[in-house]
Design a protein that fits this description.
Strand content: under 5%
Radius of gyration: 21 Å
Structural class: mainly alpha
Order of helices and strands: HHHHHHHHHHHHH
Number of domains: 3
CATH topology of the largest domain: Annexin V, domain 1
Number of helices: 13
Number of strands: 0
CATH class of the largest domain: Mainly Alpha
Distance between the termini: 31 Å
Length: 208
């Protein structure tokens, strides 16, 4: 089962986008393709580095790297390499589409993506989804979810999470007390308090 989380490939070092672009061009130029070189480069660079390679490839050769991959590769190997070249937010938009498509909704995928992306990334995901599928991501998600889970996702989709620019320890303590009172010190649980805090505080804040 595919897990739609952040990539686990860390930044490759030492990294040289121009050298990688030249190596990829050499691997795909002429008769035959050096698939091992393509595989070794694209699977050991993280997404941001792959985007730099694509930019360098176009600057050096006036060619689109993804188009060349599609032209020179075939089958599942082509699909994998082309998928690796997608910017992260495009991959996320496709993953969300898959998560709410057909019978049943993959709530884990919705949570993993929307709860872990920055406000700018969420905005990019929403824009790509609208362009690719001519539909509002928020409308699709609200149509497939319900209750407090739906409300939390709607909050996350507003992309108003606090920026990760340091942690206010006093606010962390205040939120902890609010959540404690909302969950432990009353009959039932005040879900709105949980939704507001979990949906708007920064990731660093929540991890404290």
């Amino acid at each position: 089962l595919l897990q739609y989380t952040r990539g686990t490939v860390t930044a490759f070092a030492p990294f040289d986008a121009r050298a990688d672009a030249e190596a990829l061009r050499k691997a795909m130029k002429g008769l035959g393709t050096d698939e091992e070189t393509v595989l070794n480069i694209l699977t050991t660079r993280n997404n941001a580095q792959r985007q730099e390679i694509a930019s360098a490839f176009k600057t050096l050769f006036g060619r689109d790297l993804v188009d060349d991959l599609k032209s020179e590769l075939t089958g599942k190997f082509e699909t994998l390499m082309v998928s690796l070249m997608r910017p992260a937010y495009i991959f996320d938009a496709h993953a969300l589409k898959h998560a709410i498509k057909g019978a049943g909704t993959n709530e884990k995928v919705l949570t993993e993506i929307l709860a872990s992306r920055t406000p700018a990334e969420v905005q990019n995901i929403k824009q790509v989804y609208l362009q690719e599928y001519e539909a509002s991501l928020e409308d699709k998600i609200t149509g497939e979810t319900s209750g407090h889970f739906q409300r939390l996702l709607v909050v996350l989709l507003q992309a108003n999470r606090d920026p990760d620019v340091g942690v206010d320890e006093a606010l962390v303590e205040q939120d902890a007390q609010v959540l404690f009172r909302a969950g432990e010190l009353k009959w039932g649980t005040d879900e709105e308090k949980f939704i507001t805090i979990l949906g708007t505080r920064s990731i660093s804040h929540l991890r404290r």
